[in-house]
C-alpha cells in the first residue's frame, strides 16, 4: 500500500511516464509532439515563453486535449498524439501528464525540471507572444 501524501502521488504519477529532458523535448516537438505549457500568466511573464508551446490552463487541460471533447483544441487529433506538458519546475506537469494518460492519451508525458530546467539547459525562449488557448 502506498503511503499518503503529495510525494507518494507524484511518485505514482511519474512511474507511468517516460519523462523527457529539455533537449529530448526539443527533439520530440521537432518530431510532431505537442508542447503544452500549463503555467500561469504571471509565471510565464517571469520566466518567459517556450518556442512552439501552446498555453492551456491546467483547469481545462483534459477538455482541451481529449480528441473526443467538443472543447478540444484543433491540435488534439488523436489519442496516440505525443504530448509533453511543462510547468515551472516539473512537478505539477507530472500530475497533469498522468491525468492525460488516464484519459487515454497514452503518449502524454512531461519535461524534467520544467521551464526552469529548459532555461538551465541554455535553450532559447520565444521571441513571439505565447499561443494562449482559452
TrEMBL record:
<feature type="domain" description="Rhodanese">
    <location>
        <begin position="29"/>
        <end position="127"/>
    </location>
</feature>
<dbReference type="InterPro" id="IPR050229">
    <property type="entry name" value="GlpE_sulfurtransferase"/>
</dbReference>
<dbReference type="InterPro" id="IPR001763">
    <property type="entry name" value="Rhodanese-like_dom"/>
</dbReference>
<dbReference type="GO" id="GO:0016740">
    <property type="term" value="F:transferase activity"/>
</dbReference>
<protein>
    <submittedName>
        <fullName>Rhodanese-related sulfurtransferase</fullName>
    </submittedName>
</protein>
<dbReference type="InterPro" id="IPR036873">
    <property type="entry name" value="Rhodanese-like_dom_sf"/>
</dbReference>
<dbReference type="Pfam" id="PF00581">
    <property type="entry name" value="Rhodanese"/>
</dbReference>
<keyword id="KW-0808">Transferase</keyword>
Amino acid at each position: 500500500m502506498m503511503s499518503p501524501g503529495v510525494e507518494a502521488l507524484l511518485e505514482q504519477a511519474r512511474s507511468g511516464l517516460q519523462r523527457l529532458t529539455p533537449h529530448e523535448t526539443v527533439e520530440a516537438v521537432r518530431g510532431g509532439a505537442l508542447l503544452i505549457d500549463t503555467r500561469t500568466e504571471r509565471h510565464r511573464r517571469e520566466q518567459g515563453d517556450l518556442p512552439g508551446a501552446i498555453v492551456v490552463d491546467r483547469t481545462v487541460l483534459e477538455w482541451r486535449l481529449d480528441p473526443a471533447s467538443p472543447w478540444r483544441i484543433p491540435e488534439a487529433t488523436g489519442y496516440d498524439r505525443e504530448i509533453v506538458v511543462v510547468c515551472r519546475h516539473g512537478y505539477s506537469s507530472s500530475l497533469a501528464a498522468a491525468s492525460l494518460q488516464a484519459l487515454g492519451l497514452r503518449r502524454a508525458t512531461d519535461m524534467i525540471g520544467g521551464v526552469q530546467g529548459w532555461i538551465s539547459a541554455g535553450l532559447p525562449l520565444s521571441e513571439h507572444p505565447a499561443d494562449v488557448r482559452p
